[in-house]
Specification:
The chain has 110 residues and is of the alpha+beta class. The chain has 2 helices and 5 strands, in the order ββαβββα. It has one domain (18-100).
């Protein structure tokens, strides 16, 4: 996908593993899922980088009065083999509930 601004060492393009579109009903707007998979130990920086790629991509972003956001109807799906839940002492990231709320629409319980 093409980027408007370089993100995380990328200049003008970024790769994701899969993009698919689902139309839940006849008159419902389509939902676009963007999948990124990582092998090995993943931390908050990797997830934040994925969200920045979506925010600065030409196809999945929208400009609002509050700044650049991910377009409505686009869902980022981040899959990893293992997450590093430890950040720094006293950080909210030490709590598993913080990881649950990182991606929009994430409602799974642990």
């Amino acid at each position: 996908m093409f980027l408007l601004k370089g993100v995380g060492g990328r200049r003008s393009t970024a790769e994701v593993d899969r993009v698919w579109e689902v139309t839940p009903e006849v008159f419902a707007p389509p939902i676009t899922y963007v999948l990124s998979c990582k092998w090995g130990l993943v931390n908050k920086k990797h997830v934040d980088d994925f969200m920045e790629v979506l925010r600065w991509s030409k196809g999945f972003r929208v400009d609002t009065l509050d700044g650049r956001k991910i377009k409505q109807g686009v869902v980022g799906v981040f899959a990893a083999s293992s997450f590093n839940l430890k950040k720094t002492s006293g950080s909210r990231m030490n709590q598993p509930s913080a990881w649950r709320s990182m991606l929009p629409g994430a409602t799974s319980s642990w």
